[in-house]
């Protein structure tokens, strides 16, 4: 090593050791994650209001002692809703520092974003053009996991222990009068403890706080030793190490700064001592590690300096490296997938769709998964396929099926999803023996969940995803009959417009496809809205869209039948007979009304998914008067009007098909 390199090394070492002395005072908040959606112009009134709001939130010292503050700026469509929430055990000064940092960080992480949510260990800050902070079922979420997994032999007991701890924490937080914050600790074994923390924004009622926390707890899978779930109105977290301040015999101890212990392994415990002893221990650990790291850096720099070839950073290079790293962590070995599915045994086959066959699998750690084996090569290269998988895997919402990873080997392209226990919606909806398990309350919950899932894809995710094949078979139901939209993002992963090499095709399911998509290959978010409308009518009636045509061609399809009932003033004749009288009359009529607005022929007359969610959750919103829908079968005595009769364009079955699209 040259004298120059040695001098640099000593300088870096001196600088690092010196910085240790002030690190406790100048430490930035610990970043967890963020969501940024719907870019807007910086010249807009909304953007100006946003800057004013961020300044006000971070400069009003009166609220930092409360740990939370909500604010609005502007009026009507230019109004901005903003809020920050500091961790319940944070001091007012630390809260202030975190919020000021978050307000600055917001401007760099989401420049021009219309809706934003960012989470640190110490605080959360968010803003939107709608009041997402009082919506306990909001679509904006941040989920993170500890990478360490619970050992298989401890899994069930660990799951029960954490779930019990989280529920007790939620009850305590909801019943608290001020910060709606609670932390709890329980002993999992003689040498291992569990820690939980939950918090709601103070403005929530106790009932809404419990509801929000219960929903967040459902989203946490306790096969990992730690995880957290955040929505704008509440958050929850659990770990196997203390991540919040504990009070022991009157002494407040800060959370440990070192890495958490290995899962469910005995770890030494230290009695509470003076701050001086803690500092000595930290320095004794950190300094040797730092010296080792710097030595490695110096050696690497020495060898790198001998290379003749220079490398240069390019814009976006870091993003690409992050995606490559993420793709690597998502990739499964083919032998593991083969073993998990018992070599794709017919006994494990769950079904078959337009994109390939689906099998149930059990990974070596005992986790059950659904394995989708794509039927044909997509025409993409390996890099492009990986990139698309990474994009879709980052989309996480309670009403979307989670993509866990992929397998790419030779001609095999395989997607690995979370396993959803109750099969698909059509399994219950169109089977006379199973229909009774879906009462109206359950179906109404399913309709709302599907709407929120599609809204996330359209508006609240990092990029706009149009499903293009929304149907009952692509809605999976979990153990609590909560809906999860499946096969979203297949347009990206499978290249839905290119199912065969060099041939452009439109893929979908007749009966669910909008007129402009079926006839001209034109798709948009309003195409999904049309499909959603058909799906709602099927959920209400318990009938397939094509079933009436198969019974009697004069009935047309379900959309036509519904329109005739609506025009005759008897919409309740559509209702599934299995309900008997157990349903809310006004609720069902409103859902039929919304569905008819969704299936309007003109895309401009169809509502957005955002408007649909508001219509479903707020009964006071007035609904437009529907016009005759698209793909309306007119009988001889009905006037066709200026629109052509498109009955010949509809398929009488519900199979996924492909048709040529015009160039």
Automatic annotation (TrEMBL):
Locations listed in the record: Membrane
Q: How does it sit in the membrane?
A: Single-pass membrane protein
The signal peptide annotation in the UniProt record is 1-24
CDD domains named among the record's database cross-references: Gnk2-like, STKc_IRAK
Q: ATP-binding: present as a keyword of the record?
A: yes
Q: Where is the Protein kinase domain?
A: 344-623
**Regions crossing the membrane:** 280-302
The positions annotated for binding ATP are 372
The superkingdom listed in its UniProt entry is: Eukaryota
SUPFAM superfamilies the UniProt entry points to:
Protein kinase-like (PK-like) (SSF56112)
Biological process terms from the Gene Ontology for this record are: response to stress
Q: What is this protein called?
A: Uncharacterized protein
Please give the organism: Arabidopsis thaliana
Q: Where is the organism placed in the taxonomic lineage, from the top?
A: Eukaryota, Viridiplantae, Streptophyta, Embryophyta, Tracheophyta
């Amino acid at each position: 090593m040259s004298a120059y390199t040695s001098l640099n090394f000593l300088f870096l070492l001196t600088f690092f050791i010196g910085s240790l002395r002030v690190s406790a005072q100048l430490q930035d908040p610990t970043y967890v994650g963020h969501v940024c959606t719907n870019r807007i112009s910086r010249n807009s009134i909304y953007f100006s209001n946003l800057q004013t709001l961020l300044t006000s939130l971070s400069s009003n010292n009166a609220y930092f002692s409360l740990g939370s503050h909500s604010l609005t700026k502007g009026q009507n469509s230019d109004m901005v809703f903003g809020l920050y929430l500091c961790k319940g055990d944070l001091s007012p000064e630390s809260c202030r520092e975190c919020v000021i940092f978050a307000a600055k960080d917001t401007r760099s992480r989401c420049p021009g974003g219309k809706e934003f949510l960012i989470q640190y260990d110490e605080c959360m800050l968010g803003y939107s053009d709608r009041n997402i902070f009082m919506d306990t079922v909001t679509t904006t979420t941040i989920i993170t996991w500890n990478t360490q997994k619970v050992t298989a032999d401890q899994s069930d007991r660990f799951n029960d222990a954490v779930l019990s701890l989280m529920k007790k924490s939620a009850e305590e937080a909801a019943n608290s009068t001020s910060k709606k914050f609670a932390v709890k600790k329980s002993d999992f074994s003689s040498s291992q403890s569990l820690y939980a923390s939950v918090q709601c924004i103070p403005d929530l009622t106790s009932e809404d706080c419990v509801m929000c926390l219960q929903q967040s707890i459902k989203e946490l899978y306790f096969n990992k030793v730690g995880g957290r779930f955040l929505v704008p109105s509440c958050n929850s977290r659990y770990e196997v190490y203390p991540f919040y301040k504990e009070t022991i015999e009157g002494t407040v101890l800060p959370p440990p700064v070192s890495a958490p212990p290995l899962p469910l392994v005995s770890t030494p415990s230290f009695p509470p001592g003076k701050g001086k002893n803690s500092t000595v221990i930290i320095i004794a650990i950190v300094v040797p590690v730092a010296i080792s790291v710097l030595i490695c850096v110096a050696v690497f720099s020495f060898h790198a300096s001998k290379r003749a070839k220079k490398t240069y950073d390019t814009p976006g290079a870091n993003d690409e490296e992050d995606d490559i790293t993420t793709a690597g962590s998502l990739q499964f070995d083919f032998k593991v997938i083969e073993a998990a599915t018992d070599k794709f045994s017919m006994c494990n086959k769950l079904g078959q769709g337009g994109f390939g066959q689906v099998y149930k699998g059990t990974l070596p750690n005992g986790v059950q998964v659904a394995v989708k084996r794509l039927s044909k090569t997509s025409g993409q290269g390996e890099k492009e396929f990986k990139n698309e998988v990474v994009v879709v895997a980052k989309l996480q919402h309670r009403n979307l099926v989670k993509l866990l990873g992929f397998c790419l080997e030779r001609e095999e392209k395989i997607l690995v999803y979370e396993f959803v226990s109750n099969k698909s919606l059509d399994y219950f909806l169109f089977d006379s023996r199973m229909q009774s398990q879906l009462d109206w309350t359950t179906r109404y919950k399913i309709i709302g969940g599907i709407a929120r899932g599609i809204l996330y894809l359209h508006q609240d995710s990092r990029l706009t995803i149009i499903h293009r094949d929304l149907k009952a078979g692509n809605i999976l139901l979990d153990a609590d009959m909560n809906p999860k939209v499946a096969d979203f993002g297949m347009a990206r992963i499978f290249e839905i417009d290119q199912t065969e090499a060099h041939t452009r095709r439109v893929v979908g399911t007749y009966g669910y496809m909008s007129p402009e998509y079926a006839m001209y290959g034109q798709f948009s978010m309003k195409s999904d809205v049309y499909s959603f409308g058909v799906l709602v009518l099927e959920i209400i009636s318990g009938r397939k869209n094509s079933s009436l045509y198969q019974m009697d061609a004069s009935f047309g399809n379900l959309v036509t039948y519904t329109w005739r009932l609506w025009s005759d003033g008897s919409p309740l004749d559509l209702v599934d007979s299995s309900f008997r009288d157990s349903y809310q009359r006004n609720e069902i009529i409103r859902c039929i009304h919304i569905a008819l607005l969704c299936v309007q022929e003109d895309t401009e007359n169809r509502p957005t998914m955002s408007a649909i969610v508001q219509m479903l959750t707020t009964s006071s919103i007035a609904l437009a008067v529907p016009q005759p829908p698209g793909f309306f079968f007119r009988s001889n005595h009905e006037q066709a009007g200026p629109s052509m009769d498109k009955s010949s364009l509809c398929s009488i079955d519900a199979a996924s098909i492909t048709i040529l699209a015009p160039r």
